[in-house]
Amino acid sequence: MDKELINSLGDELYGALVDHSTVQPLTERYPDMTIEDAYNISLKILERRLAAGEKMIGKKIGVTSKAVQNMLNVHQPDFGFLTDKMVYSGEMPISKELIQPKAEGEIAFILKRDIEGPGVTIPQVLAATEAVMPCFEVVDSRVEDWRIKIQDTVADNASCGLFVVNEEAAVRPQDVDLVTCGMVVAKNGKTISTGAGAAALGSPVNCVAWLANTLGQFGIGLKAGEIILSGSLVPLEPVQAGDHMSVRIGGIGDCSVQFT
Known about the structure:
Layout: H1 3-19, H2 26-29, H3 35-51, E1 56-62, H4 66-72, E2 78-83, E3 87-88, E4 91-92, H5 94-97, E5 102-111, H6 122-128, E6 129-139, H7 150-155, E7 162-165, E8 182-187, E9 190-196, H8 204-216, E10 227-232, E11 237-238, E12 244-249, E13 253-259
Parallel strand pairs: 1-10, 3-7, 4-13
Antiparallel strand pairs: 1-2, 5-6, 5-10, 5-11, 6-7, 8-9, 8-12, 12-13
């Protein structure tokens, strides 16, 4: 794709984000679009968001578990950017801000030093991590009916929506087994799914290393102070205003959110 088309599609998706509307899948219109094209489209969206006053506070990896891959029919991880406009605490106004939201429980990392691929290892990720904490990410798609391929979701900033973390439940990564730690997700007081750290590429730490090495191919690093969302351990759950969800992660703690 040439730069003009990439910028045009980035502007189109940014417009959909602002207007809370959807677009026809990019891969249906441009079947030869590559993941690199998609990533460059996402950079255009980020440029528009930053120009509008948002600040980048982290990055995310998504579509890491088989459960989510099968639900979306996307069979490799995606990656995107987080801004300060995406983070909430307590209540989350999904009816105002999102289009077709789906919630997922995951583990968030806070970094204390920079890491940049290629070649990032598991020990390097652990050494660079200040703490891990429970998180709800509520993904959204500007693509009609979630009809996405990997290029669509990468272009759409990894289907980023909003998220909430419980910083009070933060623990050092060395103090929890991130492979075997169990997750229990409840919606409106009823348990709806369970998972474990191993569901996300074998460990959330593997996810962060994958993200660092993937973004490193584009000259992008993970920075000290950033929040890194490591991917869902459970299936996506459609949500609407009035729903309440909670997640408990063994060895870490709880996180909850009320949707409005």
